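Hey L., structure's done. Input below.
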Amino acid sequence: MPDLSHGDNAAAVNALRSAVMLLGRRLKHQRVDESLSPTEMSVLGTLARCGSATPGELARKEHVQPPSMTRIVALLEAKGLVRLEPHPEDRRQKVVSQTETAEAMLEESRRKRNVWLSRLADGLDEDEWAKLRAAAPVLEKLAHL
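Output:
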């Protein structure tokens, strides 16, 4: 673990936290469907990245309690964005899958957010672009630790 008592490390962590939080908040405003909560969008994103899952698996991945995930899945199902199917090995459980409607909505959401972020990045010079390209895999790793 880096020594956070070292001024440069502490400053870098603080700047990273602040920038990630601000960009995250601004990106949340670039949604395609305003009727979905950020949590609902996150669950759909998890299904898109990881594939079908039980509500319990989704709860663990999303860091919410299982009863909360059951409610979220029910809301998404009512909106036609997920479907519930019997678990292939355990009939007591259900498997949640995204629908084609959700897939199209997520694709449009990604497109909209990428366009917005690209417009912001137009203000970067070539050296800053090189740093961004180098930092992207590190940020991706941090996001999934």
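Helices lie at 7-28, 38-50, 55-62, 66-78, 100-121, 126-143. The mean pLDDT is 90.

-- N.
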